[in-house]
Amino acid sequence: MSVADQQGPVPHFIDGKHSTGSSSRSGDVYNPATGQISRQVPLATADDVRTAIASAQAAFPAWAATAPGKRAQVMFKFRELLLANMDQLAEIVSNEHGKTIDDAKGSITRGLEVVEFVCGIPQMLKGEYSEAVATNVESYSMRQPLGVCAGITPFNFPAMVPMWMFPVAIACGNTFVLKPSEKDPSCAVRLAELMLEAGLPKGVLNVVHGDKEAVDTLLTDERVQGISFVGSTAIGQYIYETGCANGKRVQALCGAKNHMVVMPDADLDQAADAVMGAAYGSAGERCMAVSVVVTVGDEAADALIEKLAPRVKGLQVGPYTDPATEMGPVITPESKDRINGYIDRGVAAGATLVVDGREVTVSGHEDGCFVGGCIFDNVTKEMDIYTDEIFGPVLSIVRAESYEEAVKLVNDHEYGNGTAIFTRDGDAARDFVSRVQIGMVGVNVPIPVPVAYHSFGGWKRSLFGDHSIHGPEGVRFYTRLKTVTTRWPSGIREGAVFNFKAGGEH
């Protein structure tokens, strides 16, 4: 029986089967639309996590020795199962996260694209070969898996972000322990079930639920070679520093405050459409959400607000079960309270609240975790609604007097995940792309998330570690480079050599 058909606590998935674990502690899983607890999730003990690591460690030698083409065949089958189970997966995501079904399916599709990318893993793992680097000497390189890897993923994309990690790691020959968010844990277990159905040997992919105890066990266990993380900057920095101190390779993708610069010559209808989707899609709970619009000149600001305000006021806020819903709830009552607290402080700091989403109610779902769309105007860079990642449907508009001031705002912020410019001026766009200190840049594209065969990652405090996620960078992260130099006996002996020689001989 799959996790989707079960009642009771959400199980771990260890060594190819469900497990209740040994913990007496559990967390609450909410239905965000009702605000009610729907299930419990066990919070793994250190021993539970070590059991999952041991399963992955035992499975590693055989899986690493499996030909890349055979690994790819598992991924081809997994892709078919994702498509066949799309409706079920979207229902699981929407029920525990709150996002609309269409949004859930879109996020699953972005994860599926990574699966499609790694179906070509034999090509990505090819090394290089050089003949005659010296007399009778050849050199070649290969990429080999790390061993047991782990992923720690956030609540906002319970299907997509795990699929940005484990398919790449597993296709490269690693085994994997996934610790999904305890706020919406069921989808990760269902993905593991589908991987097993696709032919993945037991133990290659394990799922454990938990909190800091589980995370710290993954960070300190010497059998874990690599850690991937997506989440807040404070936790990401802790994971990076702790993992590295314990000899692990770590990639930690963290917080964001994404600016969209609107130039005076921009197509404002296009810009308004872009803001609506980028600021309020997924209720703003995504690291690539546009949460700051920087307008160059008051005329552009006034015109853009005039277009946005009625549309934000008219947003259809409701449960995912209502086909008319455009924006669902936030994840938990605590998230709702935190977001409303930021709105309160924005008003107190002197920003102009053009649209107030604090009092939105949904008939029949009065206890749901709903926050309506908000627009703040006249936001300054000292306000915490500007400095902090709110992770909710709150848009700040900052008025810049010049293009140079706008670029400085983008570059001065501590986060460097994504940014965009809306303009008809190719020279301004080219200059912006060159000068902004941001990892992902859009030109008339509000959320510049790269396709799966490119890599995703920010700069500054949005990324700790040297490698972005998925695409070629993901393959490099989950593999080690080995270079081999060979000489075969030819009957010619030159005697001992005690110094380096030109031309590569040594």
What attributes does this structure have?
38% helix; seven-stranded mixed sheet; 22 strands; globular; 2 domains
What does this entry show, briefly?
The chain has 506 residues and is α/β, with parallel strands linked by helices. The protein has helices at residues 46-64, 68-84, 86-97, 101-118, 121-124, 160-171, 186-197, 212-220, 233-245, 268-280, 298-313, 333-348, 384-387, 403-412, 426-435, 471-477, and strands at residues 12-14, 17-19, 26-31, 36-42, 129-134, 137-145, 148-152, 175-179, 205-207, 224-230, 249-253, 258-262, 290-296, 352-355, 374-377, 394-400, 415-416, 418-422, 440-443, 459-460, 463-464, 479-487.
SS summary, helix count: 16
Poorly predicted regions are none
Question: How many domains make up the coordinates?
Answer: 2
- Structural class comes to alpha/beta
How much β-strand is present in the residues?
15-25%
CATH architecture of the largest domain: 3-Layer(aba) Sandwich
What percentage of residues falls in helices of 4 or more residues? 25-40%
Rg (C-alpha, Å): 25 Å
Query: Could you tell me the mean pLDDT?
Result: 95
Give the name of the CATH superfamily of the largest domain.
Aldehyde Dehydrogenase, Chain A, domain 1
CATH topology of the largest domain: Aldehyde Dehydrogenase, Chain A, domain 1
The number of E-state strands comes to 22
Largest sheet: 7 strands, mixed
* CATH class bucket of the largest domain: Alpha Beta
Spatial separation of the terminal alpha carbons: 62 Å
Query: What's the shape?
Result: globular
| Main sheet strand line-up | 14-15-16-13-12-18-19
